[in-house]
Amino acid sequence: MIRTCTCLQDGTIKYDVPLRAVKDKNVKWYWVDFSNPNNNEAKQLSKVFHFHPLAIEDCLDGFSQRPKIDFYDQYFFIVLHALNVSSLDPYEVDLFINEKYIVTVHKKPVRELNNLWDQLKKKDSASQSPFSIMHAIVDKLVDDFFPPVYQIEDRLNVIEDNTEEETINELMDKLFDIRHEMSKLRRSLLPMRDLLYRILHSDRMSFLKDQQLYFQDVYDHLIKLVEMLESYREFSADVRDSYLSINSDKMNNIMMTLTVITTIFMPLTFIAGLYGMNFQYMPELRWKYSYFVVLGIMFLIAAMMFMMFVKIGWLRFGRRKKKKKRLIKIK
């Protein structure tokens, strides 16, 4: 689908103008949006606008491009990432832009573009330009990353508190899912941050000085998002290491208890095995009180070893008071 929006010299905004009419002399600037274009619509990128074949290929191929900016003689080609909030998967939004027009290409509906498209009717069109629209698009796409990032912090705090008393395995599964989601977000945010840095510091975009403060604000948001994700990665690593240490300590205590029990029964098993041999001539076999004496000796050995293990701290009784230690929360 192709839709057009034109701003006339007198500031009037008109929608759904024929594609060939957007270049009329009375048009101050225009915005053409290609939403999931078919083959015939995609050909207009070359026939009407004469964009470079490599840029068109980046728009239409099935591979998601990394956020970037390419400089051509008459225009700039910019690749942005929009966020699918439900899956946290990015999808591509491409912009062709110069002082006269902005052309957007995307294969999936972009809520931010639709909202901005409708808002042009309400805004002062005289103050609008392709680059102000570009800023609004970038700003709205970046703002969509904040809610998922804040949710990650909340989920990490829930895992750290473990109020539902889930098992270590369940917590580890959730933690690794969160780290996977953070990796998805970083793959979009880091290139977007580099892209904004190039826009702010490129000599070829020096004419954006009037709007530099606005793009600097978006760049600051991206820096904040990246720093938050880096902090959460460290925080998640601390939580993971803490739970792994707790799990390892529990396993060590279990193995120590089993080892102590096995050690206590070793001499008892030896005595039982010794007197369980079917030799006919064994001194104690025919004694009247042999059974009770051997049982007493076995009980005495077990009691002595048990007291020894308790004394050296290998066996502990009673529940320890749980002291809930919280890790440092990230603000």
TrEMBL record:
Localization annotation: Cell membrane; Membrane
Write out the GO MF terms: cobalt ion binding; cobalt ion transmembrane transporter activity; magnesium ion binding; magnesium ion transmembrane transporter activity
The topology of this chain with respect to the membrane is:
Multi-pass membrane protein
Q: Where on the tree of life does the source sit, at the highest rank?
A: Bacteria
Q: Keywords on this record?
A: Cell membrane, Ion transport, Magnesium, Membrane, Transmembrane, Transmembrane helix, Transport
**Gene Ontology cellular component list:** plasma membrane
Main localization (coarse) = membrane
| Protein purpose | Mediates influx of magnesium ions.
Hey, which family's this protein in? Belongs to the CorA metal ion transporter (MIT) (TC 1.A.35) family.
What protein name does the entry list?
Magnesium transport protein CorA
Query: Which organism does this sequence originate in?
Result: Falsibacillus albus
Its taxonomic placement starts with: Bacteria, Bacillati, Bacillota, Bacilli, Bacillales
